[in-house]
Amino acid sequence: MNNLGYCELCDQEKELQLSHIVPSFVYKWMKKSSVTGYIRHGETPNKRVQDGDKVYLLCRDCEQRFGNWEDIFARKVFIPLHEEGSIDPYGKWLLKFSTSVSWRVLTFFKNYLDINHFPHHLLSAVDNALTKWKEFLLDKRPHPAGFEQHMLPFRDFIEDRNDPDLPSNFNRYVSRSIDIDAACDKTEAFIYVKMCRILLIGFIAIDHPDYWRDTKIHVNRGILEKKRYKVPETIRNFMYYKAERAQKVFRSMSDRQWDLIGQDYKKNPEKFRDSEMFHAITRDSIMFGDAAFDDVRK
Ligand SMILES: [Zn+2]
To answer: Do 37 and 61 touch, CB atoms closer than 8 A?
Structure first.
């Protein structure tokens, strides 16, 4: 066996699979719907990326366990949301899927990146969250305790002209970015997973559960697309910060990369006109005029 090691989920020594941190269907959809057929990672835009971050994390059985939830989520939520279909009430699989993603991202940050920015007293909460999520994923506990999962689907473009803080690329960020983070302040911490029009927040420590409405994923069943979501301003501000950061990264792209993008768009003008990126740019430019093109170098 080539990659013998301990599976992060079941702790057994087995051959490990190269596991995606963000599920592969998100990248597949991005590629399928992009003009260039490539996706670019926020952090390394000069490299065309075909696929997302992958690490040797899980054994085949555990990978399969996650794969089943991913298939249902892709079929019942992700694809309908991105292709104008309707989303039916969800079952037990949604909390399993969401927890599996938060667990993977937090494990990835802890083992492969770092969580040195976390205050000391929140590090024990990290370990506690990982344990509770793992036990829930292995059916050893009925729910992930206080380490809640919240999900926000962004079906429509954002058109709030009265919000002076709205970044000028926000519709592009919302509809076409894949982004992960482990975020914290002094007392609160969460996993942030942006999978195109889906935002998933997995709580490591939550200050004000009452600031959230209609976003918490329930254990057994529920409805994802509710009419009256409420999220705290900190989350909104964090998304704005991430969108602005994505804009800065795009601005730092090399001339050669911009040339390549330009060539791809010229080669596929019809594909570009039909693409979601085109619609998102249109929305951003209706709202912001020239400022929407801040990230496209003159
Ligand atoms: Zn395993």
So the answer is: no
